[in-house]
């Protein structure tokens, strides 16, 4: 049983909604997203898309974007709005500029935003988690994914303790 399925079992108060990841993106969908964006996607993120073309409620209320969301969907517009609302000084402290950041996950319930540093940045492929401030930085998408599984395990432990 996956961590998220186990969480759903113990979430008696229905704190979060639980979704399965979307079906894998076809190579043509990934290429279309890259054409729309005007650059190649990070290899680790691209590999994720080949297995799951996005995941609603990936961690609590945070949605991880698939190819459709990347190409100026309402979700991407909202994520860019959050990105644009982040204080310039905070962006500067991250050592990147806004045009070097691609939103890849967001929530409409709070200020959480995950951005992937683009190929034109000093360090491509880094994922930064913002929520009013920089929460955490991951060396790559794979590291983010594994960390989110660990955070979900922490949430599961909390739910089990409060069952």
TrEMBL record:
Residues 24-147 form the Knr4/Smi1-like domain. Gene3D superfamilies: SMI1/KNR4-like (3.40.1580.10). It holds the Pfam family SMI1_KNR4. InterPro entries: Knr4/Smi1-like_dom, Knr4/Smi1-like_sf. Signal peptide: none annotated. This is SMI1/KNR4 family protein. The lineage of its organism: Bacteria, Bacillati, Bacillota, Bacilli, Bacillales.
């Amino acid at each position: 049983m996956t961590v998220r399925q186990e969480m759903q079992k113990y979430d008696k108060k229905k704190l979060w909604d639980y979704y399965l990841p979307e079906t894998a993106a076809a190579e043509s969908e990934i290429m279309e997203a890259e054409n729309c964006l005007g650059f190649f996607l990070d290899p680790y993120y691209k590999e994720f898309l080949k297995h799951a073309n996005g995941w609603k409620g990936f961690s609590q209320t945070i949605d991880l974007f698939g190819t459709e969301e990347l190409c100026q969907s309402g979700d991407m517009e909202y994520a860019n709005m959050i990105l644009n609302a982040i204080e310039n000084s905070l962006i500067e402290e991250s050592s990147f500029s806004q045009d070097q950041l691609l939103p890849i996950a967001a929530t409409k319930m709070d200020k959480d935003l995950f951005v992937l540093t683009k190929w034109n940045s000093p360090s491509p492929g880094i994922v930064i988690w913002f929520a009013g401030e920089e929460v955490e930085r991951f060396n790559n998408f794979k590291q983010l994914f594994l960390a989110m599984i660990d955070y979900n395990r922490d949430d599961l432990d909390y739910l089990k303790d409060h069952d």
